Amino acid sequence: MNKGKLFVFSAPSGSGKTTIVKHLLAQPELNLEFSISCTTRAPRGEEVHGKDYYFITWEAFKKHIKAEDFVEWEEVYTDNFYGTLKSEVERIWAKGKHVIFDIDVAGGLRIKKKFPEETLAVFVKPPSVDELKRRLKQRSTESDDKINMRIAKAHVELATAPQFDVVIKNYDLETAKEEAVKLVKEFINNDKL
């Protein structure tokens, strides 16, 4: 199978990585397709099965682990498991496209380790933890306890930024989007930065 590139975007919740990934997907010249992760958590808001995530049971998730079907998987939050199926990456590569991931820090680093030559791992850094908290509260999708859990996790995730190939500082969203497009184009065209 002809391997394309893998673009990993990781960051603490509220950093803007999903907005940046959506912007990249809207650039047809980049030839990107979103890697849909599996998760055992329930859908939030208007999330759609097969578009945002594959929402599966813990029992189904365990079967995939046992069958070694995942490129990476992890318990991101207590009882909330996420993983990337090998078949998802193969499906996108078979279409002649590059794969883009909106994924947690640990999962992103695992993909980079498994596919070091094909992967550009990008960490999206927020202006501050206070700004993260403000953005998460503004979403109004989670309880204060969940938000506090995400903020606690953000401190740990921010410490991993140096392990990524590139850090985009998202102080201004438009600038961050432009920087992301430039990085993706360069990696596709040059095989390196």
Class computed from helices, strands and strand pairing: alpha/beta
On the 0 to 100 scale, the average pLDDT is 90
Strand content: 15-25%
Q: In terms of per-residue confidence, which ranges show pLDDT below 50 for 5 or more consecutive residues?
A: none
Note the overall shape: globular
- Biggest pleated sheet: 5 strands, parallel
Q: What is the C-alpha radius of gyration, as a whole number of Å?
A: 16 Å
Number of strands: 9
- Give, in order, the helices and strands: EHEEEHEEHEHEHHEH
Distance between the ends: 25 Å
In spatial order, strands of the major sheet run 2-7-1-8-9
How many helices? The count is: 7
Task: Specify the helix fraction band.
Answer: 40-55%
Describe what is shown at a glance.
This protein has 193 residues and is of the alpha/beta class. The protein has helices at 17-25, 58-66, 86-94, 105-114, 129-139, 144-158, 173-190, and strands spanning 6-10, 32-34, 37-39, 53-55, 70-77, 80-85, 98-102, 119-125, 166-169.
Report what the structure shows.
The chain starts with 5 loop residues before the first strand and ends with a helix. The model has no long low-confidence stretch (mean pLDDT 90). The protein has helices at 17-25, 58-66, 86-94, 105-114, 129-139, 144-158, 173-190; strands at residues 6-10, 32-34, 37-39, 53-55, 70-77, 80-85, 98-102, 119-125, 166-169. The strands form 2 sheets. It has a 5-stranded parallel sheet, sandwiched between helices. Strands 4-3-6-5 form a 4-stranded mixed sheet, sandwiched between helices. The protein contains 7 helices and 9 strands. The protein is an alpha/beta fold and 193 residues long.
